[in-house]
Amino acid sequence: MRGIEGKAFVITGGASGIGLAVALLALQGGAAGVCLIDHEPAALAQAVQSLGRNAHGLLGDVADAAQVAQAVAASALRLGRIDAVVNAAGVDHVAALEAMTDEAWARILAVNLTGPMLVSRAAVPHLRAAGGGTIVNIASGAGLAPLRERSAYCASKAGVIMLGKALAMELAPDNIRVNAVCPGAVDTPLFRGSYEHTVDPAATLETIRQRYALQRVARPEEIAEAVLYLSSPASSYVTGTAHAVDGGRTFH
Length: 252
Ligand SMILES: NC(=O)c1ccc[n+]([C@@H]2O[C@H](COP(=O)([O-])OP(=O)(O)OC[C@H]3O[C@@H](n4cnc5c(N)ncnc54)[C@H](O)[C@@H]3O)[C@@H](O)[C@H]2O)c1
Hints:
The chain is of the alpha/beta class.
């Protein structure tokens, strides 16, 4: 029905939040299998167990080139092929410029921008061998319109949007489409971690809600729907886009 029947997915950050929702929806839609790559062993084991026998888990840090190469090669072995890559692993960081440490800046860029490049680089030979495929990068509305005191996060997400456009151009001859999904606020551990520690979490959440025309936070499945569309033949003429799924904040 979705056009993803029989497809093999590699999903980074698949142990939680948006990545996990993509894995669940893909399997419900008839995907042959999903391989989750994540660096949190306990969450990964739990996610794989909850998804059933067509789900596999591989431990790896997406910012580490050797670990990525190993995890992607192992994914191809487990799945037999790779048709779709979803780069969902990501980290948030809130800091004013003068409070930004060199380490924090480097880590945000390494995970959110270098990670998708490393995973794409390792996966492309497998996508090509499958006759083509898709890469969907989970960017953010923060990559389209800025958020206060999030310079590293915003820059990393704007970077991954442009990485996707450049790769869409480069990989089109191989029948590989590359797109970004730019979520707004989504109810996941990453999002909750951004306001739960504030002095008045309820008031902070309300302020966040007010940024969105729809005045609410999304469920991870609402983002996963867009990811599956961009991973399916329903989007066969769509490549190099940044698709805002943000309840009306960036109006992109
Ligand atoms: N939740 C939101 O409001 C929101 C909004 C816009 C964009 N996003 C983006 O969506 C993506 C998914 O975020 P989420 O909200 O589902 O967060 P989440 O924290 O629920 O899930 C992220 C997953 O990525 C994994 N991960 C983090 N760093 C990793 C690394 N170096 N190597 C391997 N795995 C790693 C984590 O262990 C976790 O399982 C991120 O790229 C995030 O920036 C989220």
